[in-house]
Amino acid sequence: MPKPISGFSKLSKSEKIDWLLDTYFTDKNQSKTLVEQYWNSDKKLQKLHDEFIENTITNFYLPLGVAPNFKINEKLYTIPMAIEESSVVAAASKAAKFWLERGGFKAEVISTEKIGQVHFTYDGSFEKLETFFKTVKPKLISDASAITKNMERRGGGILDIELINKTEDLENYYQLHATFETLDAMGANFINSCLEQFATTFKDEAEKILEGNIEIVMSILSNYVPNCLVKAEVSCKIEDLKSKDINNPQLFAQKFKQAVNIAEVEPFRAVTHNKGIMNGIDAVVLATGNDFRAVEAGVHAYASKSGQYSSLTHCKIDDDTFRFWIEVPLALGTVGGLTSLHPLVKFALDLLEKPNAKELMQIVAVAGLAQNFAAVKSLTTTGIQEGHMKMHLMNILNQFEASNEEKEKVVEHFKTNIVTHSAVVDTLKKLRQ
Ligand code: MEV
């Protein structure tokens, strides 16, 4: 068993790698992968990446792909997607093209409110706490003015602060529940700084005038943002759904709607259905330098808002019209954070023609809807494996270190044959005999 190490973070990058190799690897060539293959030769760029986090030893690449032909509110976008899963970008591109020919996507931002809370305990009477809160509320806001003044100048800031009594759930537990408008910033730092200032003022003032003891437990934004909501939708006449792989549009529409209805009522299916949506959402969130963990957490909480985990997308057939939409909470930023630091994030935002946060919310929601459309369309027609395995074919070939010539021959063979892992291996073996 390796010995614990102290002062690891103080070692240089090379020393860290040496320690890892000495401690965990017999094959010292591993350092080639880390250093020769993955360190960037541009020293300035490498240093930038090194300093994003602590204890960086190398870079971890994901492919950055693009899905063109997304018509959103009459504007045409090519959407950047950072993702490793083979079929996601292809599916997004296919869905974009399909809907481009049927009027495109419509998207609208419903609300943009963010939330943060100061969690505290208090052992006195609620009436006294309430009276104290009313007196101190203006000071909570004014004491935060150094933090809020720039945001306010741009039209954002603190929207409200409420005192919430949670003592029925947990003894002596209360909150300052604050709402914010953070405009084009995701706002995590802004919100957390405001909350910590609220907590300081609240505790200081309480010590002067309030009977009873207040203990601040923590001050932190919430990644559950049900009032930071965007909706994206597609619709067309059912007969217009007819296409190369939809022969019977009426049957397709019915089956598609049935699949969405199943995800609405059946949590086991809903989780996978929403996972497919997140394939699209996360890929764009990541490419644009946003926090996909925050988005994931908030989206899944929203999917459970009724008390049962359910689908984020919905489908309706009104007479002869097919309608398919998503409603999803997305706290995104197009300024601050990685947006001006990471060269590829800058590229991604430039590619999207420098969207503001609201436009990015719409683009990301559309990417989720498109992904879900592609998945449910495949699932209810050909099945998912046909397209999935075709895209996965290259991964299998790379795993067996196929040459370019072998790849060409195998890809040609599987244009007319079903791709399975063993069929690919057999074909490759035969070629190599
Ligand atoms: C795979 O990454 C995503 C799907 O499973 C989504 C779905 O089932 O709807 C294909």
Helix/strand layout:
Blueprint: H1 13-24, H2 30-37, H3 43-50, E1 64-72, E2 75-82, H4 88-100, E3 106-109, E4 113-122, H5 126-143, H6 145-153, E5 157-165, E6 173-181, H7 188-209, E7 214-222, E8 229-237, H8 249-265, H9 267-287, H10 292-303, E9 313-318, E10 321-329, H11 343-351, H12 357-380, H13 384-399, H14 404-413, H15 421-432
Antiparallel strand pairs: 1-2, 3-8, 4-6, 4-7, 5-6, 8-10, 9-10
The structure holds (R)-mevalonate.
In short:
The protein is of the alpha+beta class.
Number of domains: 4
Average pLDDT, all residues: 96
Tell me the name of the CATH class of the largest domain: Alpha Beta
**Measured on Cα atoms, how large is the radius of gyration?**
26 Å
Would you list the SSEs in sequence order as H and E?
HHHEEHEEHHEEHEEHHHEEHHHHH
CATH architecture descriptor of the largest domain: Alpha-Beta Complex
- The portion of residues assigned to helices is 40-55%
Which segments are poorly predicted (pLDDT under 50) over 5 or more consecutive residues?
A: none
CATH H-tier superfamily of the largest domain: 3-hydroxy-3-methylglutaryl-coenzyme A Reductase, Chain A, domain 2
Report the sheet-strand fraction. 15-25%
Distinct small molecules bound, one entry per kind: (R)-mevalonate
Biggest sheet character: 4 strands, antiparallel
Q: Report the principal-axis shape.
A: globular
State the CATH topology of the largest domain. Answer: 3-hydroxy-3-methylglutaryl-coenzyme A Reductase, Chain A, domain 2
- How do the strands of the widest beta sheet line up side by side? 3-8-10-9
- Work out the helix count: 15
Q: How far is the first residue's CA from the last residue's CA?
A: 45 Å
- Could you say which structural class the secondary elements and strand pairing correspond to? alpha+beta
